[in-house]
Amino acid sequence: MPPEPNADALNACTKTVTAYAHVRNGKRFVFIDTPAFGQDRFQNISTWSGFISRGSTILTGVIYTHGITVKCSRTDERNFGILSQICRERTIGRLRLVTTMWDDASLPEAVEAERVLKEKFPKSLLDAGSGYERFDNTPELAWKIVEGLQKEMADDIGSIYRKDRAQAKISMPDIESDDVVIAVLGSPGSGKSNIINKLIGMPPEPNADALKAYTPAFELDNFQTISMSLGLMFRRSIMLTGVIYTYDITVKCTPPDERNFAILLKMCGEGAIDRLRLVTTMWDDPSSPEGMEAEHALKEKYAKSLLDAGSGYERFDNTPESAWKIVEGLGDKKQALKLQEEIVNNIVDWWKASAFIGIPGVRV
């Protein structure tokens, strides 16, 4: 973009918080241009940052610019202190102090100003983990600063999720079409939520044993909720990468389990059955005769039609590595379920979808 008209005549061009989007190498970058970091603008900036947080959006980084030709003032020192409080220990590594106006200064004076800046005024900021960069007024260096933040974000995003549960939970409207979306289904107490915990590094919910599961169990009372949620995603052009169905290997297979396997087969349909993974859980002793016998019966009798049609099968051994092996085994393919296509494209009520026709207890 060219400079703002009359930019030289303005002490600060940006008067409101404004977002600019730019696509580079297939990724969309959003840059938030904020008013000058001064006392009369803190409310606008704070309101914006709170709005971003409530929307479950995580910043890749914060760039704070400082003109190298300008002598550091008490206002600057105050701003450095505020930045330290805003970022705090967990995210201070996402901050970059960037000096500008290098082409307007003599090099010896600029280098001396840089030394004083780094050794005195924002020293505590830099010591705490903030990065420092020079900006030489070229697109190449601007992108070098941004891409440096992007790389570090990829390195430590997992630890950020582990430290803050609120950042791991998002609302359904926050799911986007380019996300890898996996539906985790299963009967009550079969370990659905435990797999999710292992994937994203979250500890178990308080009183989890009493809750059994904090995602809807795949049972009669919840078929409507699950079906409508899947339909809503498809209406928003969100395709599933996979469906994980958890089954407790220590529990004897019951008629409701056999019913669920039949529903899953029709719910996925021929076109998406390869997106399904039947995952057995509760393998405290992988070599126990009881577990091996139950697994054999499951694969050769109760869920045989499901597996013969193309569903995958996996054991989950209660580790993050095992959970991620299952997810990564699904690959990158995305596919709509037959249930989603029937509800949205054929405009049928959920209980009239082929997966639920003839199921006792489902309304007609």
Structure explained in plain terms:
The chain is of the alpha/beta class and 364 residues long. It contains 14 helices and nine strands. The strands form three sheets. Strands 6-7-8-9 form a four-stranded parallel β-sheet, covered by helices on one side. It has a three-stranded parallel β-sheet with strand order 3-4-5, covered by helices on one side. Helix 2 (74-91) links the parallel strand 3 (62-67) and strand 4. The termini are far apart. Mean pLDDT is 80; it is low at 6-12, 39-48, 50-56, 154-167 and 205-214.
Q: Low-confidence parts lasting 5 or more residues at pLDDT below 50?
A: 6-12, 39-48, 50-56, 154-167, 205-214
Strand order in the sheet with the most strands:
6-7-8-9
Instruction: Evaluate the radius of gyration.
Output: 27 Å
Query: Roughly how many Å apart are the termini?
Result: 59 Å
Number of strands: 9
Class by SSE composition: alpha/beta
Query: Which percent band covers the strand fraction?
Result: 5-15%
N-to-C SSE string, H for helix and E for strand: EEHEHEHHEHHEHHHEHEHHEHH
* Fraction of residues in H or I helices: 40-55%
Output the number of helix runs. Answer: 14
Shape by Cα distribution: elongated
Which sheet architecture does the biggest sheet show? 4 strands, parallel
Q: How would you state the average pLDDT, rounded?
A: 80
Outline of this structure?
The protein is an alpha/beta fold and 364 residues long.
Give the helix/strand layout.
Elements: E1 18-24, E2 27-33, H1 42-54, E3 62-67, H2 74-91, E4 95-100, H3 107-119, H4 123-128, E5 131-134, H5 139-163, H6 165-168, E6 182-186, H7 192-200, H8 208-211, H9 223-235, E7 242-248, H10 255-268, E8 276-281, H11 289-302, H12 304-309, E9 312-315, H13 320-329, H14 338-344
Parallel strand pairs: 3-4, 4-5, 6-7, 7-8, 8-9
Antiparallel strand pairs: 1-2
Helix pairs in contact: 7-13, 9-14
